[in-house]
Amino acid sequence: MNKTRKISYIALLSALAIVINLFESAFIPPIQFGIRFGLANIISLITIELFSYRELFFVALIRVTIGSLLRGVIFGSAFMISFSGVLLSTLAISLCHKLKTSFIFMSIISAIAHSLGQVLVVIFLYDQVNVFVLFPILALSSIATGVLTGLIAKECIKRVKRV
Amino acid sequence: MKKKEIIIIGIIALLAVFYLAYNFLIKNQAHTYAEVKDLESGEVLLRFDVNEDAYYEFEVPNGFFHVEVKDGHYHATDVDCPNQDCVNFGWMPSLGVYTPIICIPNGIMVEVVDE
Question: Residues with Cβ < 8 Å from A109, sequence gap 6 or more?
Answer without folding.
Answer: A92, A93, A96, A101, A146
